[in-house]
Structure formats: C-alpha cells, structure tokens
Amino acid sequence: MGLHLWRGRLFTPEELETGAPVAVIGHKLAAELTAGRPTESAIGTALTCQGQAVRIIGIQESVVGERPYLNVAVPLSKAEALMAMATTPRARTLALNAARVEDVLAIKAKAEAWADRRNPTGARRTRSPLRRPGLIGWSR
Prior knowledge:
By secondary structure, this protein is of the alpha+beta class. It has 2 domains: 1-84, no CATH class; 85-140, no CATH class. The protein has helices at residues 13-18, 27-34, 76-82, 104-118, and strands spanning 5-8, 22-25, 46-49, 52-60, 72-73, 93-97, 126-127, 135-139. The strands form 2 sheets. Strands 1, 2, 3, 4 and 5 form a 5-stranded mixed beta sheet that branches. A hairpin with a 2-residue loop joins strand 3 and strand 4 (52-60). The relative contact order is 0.18.
C-alpha cells in the first residue's frame, strides 16, 4: 500500500519501532466510519481490530476502485497482534515502505521474521522486489 497522505500524518520512527497502536486508513474506510460527518473527522478516533483499539492518525488519498476494509496500515510490529490466524487462504503479497533507503534491509529482516513466525512450516518464499525506492515486496 503506497501511503499517499490526504489528511493527518504518517508514522513516526518511534511508533514504527515500538509498534504503537496507530493506523493510517484508506479514504473510503474513513468516509464509512464518519457517516455524514467530514471524512477528516476520522483522525483521532479509535478503530478496533481483533479486539484491540488503534488510533487513526492519517487518511490516504482516495483511489479509484479502493476496497474499504483492506486499506489499514499499522506499524509492522503491531500487525502480528492485529491479524488472526487464517482458516482460509489470504492474499499472498506483502508490501512495505521504508522511510529511508538505509532502513530497507532492517525492515526486510523484521518482515521475514514476522512471516516465519506466522508460517512455521517454512513454506518457500519467492521474493520479487518492487520498483519504487524503499519498497520491499514478496509473495509466498
């Protein structure tokens, strides 16, 4: 998910490191959550995922074809707690953004460790780097 901010802010380095309970959501989800109020009023409100509240800190730009419940970004270290183990197959691609190119390898290592904890059977990963600087992607 490329985060093109419409309102609010992105994650701070501290929030990324500590796994703070914050989220940047898609425009369509923000519009549904505010139901008749200004869309930007979603900023500062709580969104509950898997029984855990996260505070909305930003809203992405509107995207044609956006699916409302799929555009929620949280710090990677918070993602594991918010995702229930699936009983059915899920999307098999993960995309990550690094604030600086120097951070790419550290974020990649964290993401691989996270994926290995979620899939202890050791299914083979095929990595396919994406073309945007600082963006890591691979498919399982």
